[in-house]
Amino acid sequence: xxxxxxxxxxxxxxxxxxxxxxxxxxxxxxxxxxxxxxxxxxxxxxxxxxxxxxxxxxxxxxxxxxxxxxxxxxxxxxxxxxxxxxxxxxxxxxxxxxxxxxxxxxxxxxxxxxxxxxxxxxxxxxxxxxxxxxxxxxxxxxxxxxxxxxxxxxxxxxxxxxxxxxxxxxxxxxxxxxxxxxxxxxxxxxxxxxxxxxxxxxxxxxxxxxxxxxxxx
Amino acid sequence: xxxxxxxxxxxxxxxxxxxxxxxxxxxxxxxxxxxxxxxxxxxxxxxxxxxxxxxxxxxxxxxxxxxxxxxxxxxxxxxxxxxxxxxxxxxxxxxxxxxxxxxxxxxxxxxxxxxxxxxxxxxxxxxxxxxxxxxxxxxxxxxxxxxxxxxxxxxxxxxxxxxxxxxxxxxxxxxxxxxxxxxxxxxxxxxxxxxxxxxxxxxxxxxxxxxxxxxxx
Lengths: 217, 217
Prior knowledge:
CATH architecture of chain A: Alpha-Beta Barrel
Distance between the termini of chain A: 19 Å
Oligomer: homodimer
């Protein structure tokens, strides 16, 4: 995944035509497009290959199963044309390792969820976040996912993982996180959804965020 | 999901024709068929509707996202014809609650993963297992998933959740768990995969396990 605009689009739409239209519009303004299960279940796995014509694709599947099932999922997603898969770390070292090993073989990326920003993430995930970040660093995953809504946590996670791993940060825009603050806190890419895909002019919305990012670099 | 044979088939194959052939063969011998993302990604979501002609379908998607994404996933899976979805509890009360509420509205089931049986489950999930079981009970989910490879844990989980919730237990057969021991430990359904779907005679393999279960009831 090339680091140019430092912006990732979270393409949280369900309709494949809309997904393609928006992806085409933001080409060049985003480094990657993140898609989740809702779009893939609605459109079929082949939507990944179609969107890959416009940008690198990150499959945000929060993969959280036993090692063998994790591998079967990542294999299909990479085969479909995705460049990266987002996996949960709470299922443990072996579930993560099989994904990281597969990604390495294929020159692809795995990003590991360290913590999440919804209220329920405080129940059990919050305490595990730093352990998961260390696990991701030990296994040399490509990076971790840490919320833009809590820039102070991004700084903490950066201390744990060092500079070898990337941080990608959702929560910018409609969820309240600031692109500039999150970049200054040490994230590599900010992830923006509604502010771009619900805009009448997705390309302009993306360009505005890229300008905001460039201003603080 | 009707409790007749107390047997669930874990249909961990990738080919849709094979999935249909095996499902047809075991009709009447299993109460449900559990399918995961590898089959659904390979065959499309509509495979769920096709297999639902032969038994109740449990979508073992280990759903582990923010509440809104969890809802979007469960909606599509129920719309496709599944009777139940397996979700992770690790992501917290709100991520679970939105799934349970949706299932209740539609007269469907949610089963919550309390702990898993692969080695990495000891890293972070094991300690959270009892909290997750209590969360599932508080929210009146349909049941929990607890490993047949550790019948003593099934007993502990039963004490926590009481008799209102069901327990379904994977790990019987090739993974070493015993159907009889797991039923005696208090599980409602045992989940068997390879021993049935890799058999030359899946119907006979299923019938043999059902006999073993009936012997201890």
